[in-house]
Amino acid sequence: MAELAGTQSVDVTINYLKTRKGMTMAGEIALCLFSIIGKTVPVNLGCYIIVPIAEMVLGIFMLIVFTMGLEKTSFEVHWLFCDLLRVVTGSVLLLITSIRCFIILIASSVMMLLMGEVFALCAGCLFGYDAFLVYSTIKNKNTSTTGQDPSDQYPSGQDEQS
C-alpha cells in the first residue's frame, strides 16, 4: 500500500514538472544550485551566497506545495501571492547582487566565481519570467471571477452578508 502511494506521488510530481510552471521552478532550483556551487570557491571577495541558498530553499518549498496540491486545499494562505512575492524578491535580489559581484570579479578575474554569477544572473532572469507567469495567472483568475453574476460566486445556501 505504501509503495502504491509512493508511486502515485512520484507520478504526480513528474506530471507537475512537465507543466510550464513546473519546468520554470525546476530551472530556478537548478540554476540556484549551480550558482551556489560556483560561489563556494574559497576566495572571499564579498559576493553574497545567502541569496541563492534562500531562493533555492523557498523554491523547493513552493514546488512541494504546488506538487501536492496544497494551494487548492489550504485557504488560509494565498499561495499564488506568496509565490509572486518569492519570485519578485528573488529576481530583484539575484540581479542586484550578481551585478554588484560582477563589478568586483572583473578586477580579480576568478573564473569560478564569475561562472557562479552568470548562473545567478540567469536565475534572476528566470525568476522574472516566473513572476510574469504568476502575475498573468492571478490576473486571469481575477478577470474570470469579476465577469460572473455575484450570486454565482457563493455556493448554494451561502448568500452574501450585507
From TrEMBL:
Membrane topology term reads: Multi-pass membrane protein
An example of a Gene Ontology cellular component annotation for this protein is: membrane
Query: Entry's InterPro entries?
Result: Marvel (IPR008253), MARVEL-CKLF_proteins (IPR050578)
- Coarsely, its chief localization is membrane
Q: Does the keyword Transmembrane apply?
A: yes
> What is the protein name stated in its UniProt record?
Proteolipid protein 2
Limits of the MARVEL domain: 16-139
Function according to Swiss-Prot or TrEMBL: May play a role in cell differentiation in the intestinal epithelium.
Q: Where in the cell is it found?
A: Membrane
Residue ranges crossing the lipid bilayer per the database entry: 49-70, 91-112, 118-138
Give the record's keywords alphabetically. Membrane, Transmembrane, Transmembrane helix
Superkingdom of source: Eukaryota
What stretch or stretches form a coiled coil here? none
